[in-house]
Here is the input.
Amino acid sequence: MKAIGIIFGMLALAIGVVPQFTNCSAQGHAIELPDGRTIPMKCHWTAMAAPAVAVPLLIVGGLMFFSRRRETLPALSLLGAVLGIFAILLPTYLIGVCASDEMLCNIEMKPTMIFSGAVTLGAGLAGLVLAGKTRSGRFTDAAESD
Amino acid sequence: MNLIRLALRNIAGNSFRSFVVLLCALLISSMALTTGMILFGADNSLQLAMERLGADIIIVPEGAADRIESALLMGRPTQSWMSASVVERVAAAMDVQAVSPQLYLATLSNASCCTVSDMFLIAYDPKTDFVVTPWLEKTIGGELRLGEVVGGTDVFVPAGEEGIKLYGYAVALKAKMEPTGTGLDRSLFLTIETAREIARVSRTKAEKPLEIPQNSVSAVMVKVRPGCNPRAVALNISVHIKGVTPILSPDMFQSQRKELAGLRNGVVMTLMLTLVLSVLLIGLVFSMAANERRRELGVLRALGATRSFVFRVLLSEAGLLALYGGVAGAALTILAVVLFRKLIIATLGIPFLIPALPMLAGLILGGLACSLLTVMLAAMLPAYRISHEDPSLAMRE
Here is the structure.
């Protein structure tokens, strides 16, 4: 379970940090209005929202790493999995990214968030299964040595 | 307790050792699968691009071959021109069955009059064309009319708009072609008549007009007579028509093929190095584990387990770890390669298409076999040594 805590922590960093440098605004691109003003592109808001998923995930990872109470592990794993789903939904459905496939947000930011989210979801589900087995005593030895 | 359950308990009993072996198996399967997906995908992509171009020989202006190949392969627009008289001269050459001119154009960069920035436009002559027209007849049952275009698989009409704006002129996307993984997927095909109309409209509606030089073409597609040698025809053209470079279809994308060969060598070397290091690391981990577990395995032998049973338990542990790691590696690799395909193409400078399902299944099995073989090979010697040890000695130490 400590390993899953570490994985959550690393993925939280990827979800929180990578979008800050790979959104189009960070590259100096913006939408120019007819009156000459500029407004940020869609991917800028996704990057702004990413820490809202990354920070709780980092806390969940930390709690999983340091927690000695087995009863909390299933809930933490489930929370991690849900945050993984949000990391996938942010650049795809909730906010989205720029329309052009050739923009940096489509090439780097969106894949990074989907990949990290999918791995977080997988790790969360694996944690949930392992926590269930630990509670039912099938892998008690493993949990103790962990 | 059966063999697999015992192996599973042993795996769970030492999580650090299991994690190291699992990680090595994951790495091996992932590297093998990535190598396979990119190399086979790149080969497939080049082949499909060649088939899409559909000509035996492509005649381009002298010195423009590399730029045009790069444009067709990576979708980086280029413009180069030669006299339209080349079309008639090539048509008159020996053993040439059909010729068709093409114009290579591009949309403006970040201009409000163009929906897509820097898109490669290929204008063809429907009267002579033998590349796009047969495909169109099968797909839409006719030819493109004025203002109509067909696009590669990645071309789309933006939400809320009726067409794609090119130099202030909205064209209708009639159909999309099958993916090739190359720049052709992001290119538009239109008739020369539509291109000239866009050029006319662009003078008033675009930020910068589209210039199409009079009596000029960018390339001439050539089909040779059946049974004739395209190489001889190309040689004949290069000797008799000055200022042009004929590129034979099998010779297309030679620089990319060379890059691919270099990449193949580098990746295979890295894979081999990873395999060797993994065998050494896993062998070391299993040797340490075998030494730690001498007493436990000695007890197992004293309780009546045969040498072969102990050997099989240890190999089952290795096999299960390799399988878990291999499956996880394959899943992560497919996810990563599919999601980061464009980034990989931009980084390597070589286009590739995700292989079709049967090929992908073969590559996954190959990756799993690689990780299974490596881990089993590394575990074989420590497992053999410990299973052949005298139980009384093992228990005493």
In short: Chain A has one domain: 2-145. Strands of chain A lie at 31-32, 38-39. The domain at 2-145 of chain A is CATH 1.20.140 (Butyryl-CoA Dehydrogenase, subunit A; domain 3). Residues 139-146 of chain A have pLDDT under 50 and may be disordered.
